[in-house]
Amino acid sequence: MTFLSETRSPVFHKILNREYFVYYALILVIAFFAVVLSETAFLSTPNFMNIIRQTTPITVMAVGMTFALAVGHIDLSVGSVVALSALVCGLLVDVVPWPVAVFAGLSSGLLVGLINGVLTEWLKVSSLLITLGSMGVISGVARVLTNLESIPITNDSFTYIFGSGSFGPVSVMFIWTLLALILGWIFLSKTRFGSHLLAVGGNPTASRALGINVVKVKITAMVIAGGAAAMAGMLYAGRLHGARYSLGEADLLTVIAAVAIGGTSLFGGRASVAGAVVGSWLMGVINNGLILWGFSTNEQIIARGLILIVAVAIGVKEDRR
Amino acid sequence: MTAEYHVPDNALEVREVHKSFGGVQALKGVSFSILKGEVVGLLGDNGAGKSTLVRCISGVHPQDKGEILINGQEVDIKSPQDARDQGIETVFQDLAVIPNFDVSKNLFLNREILSSNPILKFFGWLNHKEMSRQSEIALKRLNSRIPSFREEIKNLSGGQRQAVSIARAVNWGADIVIMDEPTAALGVEQAAQVNNLIKLISSQGISVLLISHNIQHVMEVCHRAVVLRHGRAAANVRIEDITPDDLVGLITGAKRAA
Questions:
Q1: Fold adopted by B10-252
Q2: Does B109 touch chain A (CB under 8 A)?
Q3: Which of A158, A168, A239, B71 is the most exposed place for a label (fewest CB within 10 A)?
């Protein structure tokens, strides 16, 4: 294959660039389902708005996870933080003014992120193990918190802003998606802070030698991941008009697959917020397509797992360069 | 170059520096100095105290006893930041660059130029344009063969990566650059490029403390060699006054300084 490996023109090289992969994948998957599901409403604006509405919590979590992965960490506790923050907010929303309840819910996620980050640095172990532990602890706490009961949320302002509202045909969820995309992209690509995150993930020793506070940067990344997961909890609670211990339970695999397929390295130093957002849409489209095709949740889980493996296989090739 | 007529302009002077780790005395009173624009080779066998001495000067492990003087003034170096503030930059052997960053981002890492807009500046908004402009100037100053400041570091050779590290040190206005085995990881041609770069920055008035095991490189680029043995400066010789064999003898202890 000398043609491909050696005489590849710059343009051809650019087209094959890893960071565009997720866009091609999204187009291919949409084209595939458009043909297979031509009898259904798959290829329609309401359906796509529906996909975005359902996917937004995943998108927000994926953007947060991108920051954790950028420094070389991973946060397995995001799914459990979704349940915790939604429950905390749900328990408080009728007791205190709703913005205070939101603040408490978000704070619970930021706090979990802080604890994850501090423990990882303090014990000098992989964040994989720390967050595996905190995932267990928090999902337990979420179960105990309401004794497995669901909490209905009837506050209209809250449910409108965090998921149920819309401006004409545009769901408020779409605005949250855009916000996550723009804020995440600006912080990662346009600011000194983002540059330091990627530097720490790319070469921690060099970053330390150049005077970057590596510990602080790594902890901050975990706080962002936790905060984003808590935000996703708000969006679930707002969309579903209630909170439940099982919220976010099945999301971890989806989030990691979305981020990985979007071109973010699972080992730090390379990250794409836009890729994570598009990756989450890809996961959403696949879910939606499989449902319309008549597949069950079980097959969707298989699909997600396969996508993660494919994404990792492509990513690892890139990382070993 | 006779001392009677000229008071040497010491860029860096180290006086009786001691350093112990637990019960082990790594440095037992080391003294030497580097002139402005001089390249001094720091040699010695493994465990002679080279790395410890470098860590004292670069602020990683401050000394227990003794003084460090910059331009004749005693300075207190307690952290790498202190060293940097005094104009001392360190170039590490393990290629301290970020592989996924381009040359410009590497040159300005942790010294980013921020937007002049006060609001954007508050959020740490980077001025990529200005950093690119200055990177181009920095690379030109070093006659570097690096194709572009936009090139990602992972696409560069080892020698080019080391050149980026050196350019970063020089770009930050370092008066003294400490290089810890800058050519250890490089091939012959790449090492020659780095050596040429050392000569170039020396000619621009920057002092270099070069830690090296490579006698040939030391003979080629250094003006003087300081040999450490058992935590002491066993010799301090001008390169033109010594043969490579004698230099090896001083390192191994087979020969004693005259």
A1: Rossmann fold (3.40.50)
A2: yes
A3: A168
